[in-house]
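Q: My labmate handed me this sequence with no annotations at all. I'd like to see what the chain might look like in three dimensions before we decide whether it's worth expressing. Could you predict it?
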Amino acid sequence: MNSKHVKGSFNEIKGKVKEEVGHATGNNKLAGEGVVDRVKGKVQNAFGDVKDAVKSGVDKVLDRKDGRRSA
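A: Here is what I predict for the chain of 71 residues:
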């Protein structure tokens, strides 16, 4: 887990709350902002997944160059 995952999860939760409050109060603007925040959070989480995968791949390559075996 990296900072993108943390920020993404926060934005998804914040967006869900905004969306629900917007629907409950009839505030379509707030509900729309919530949807945008949720999508932003999902993108941040996906970017965090890519970042972790790249780091893992680089770590494996460096381990092999050092003569160590990766688990």
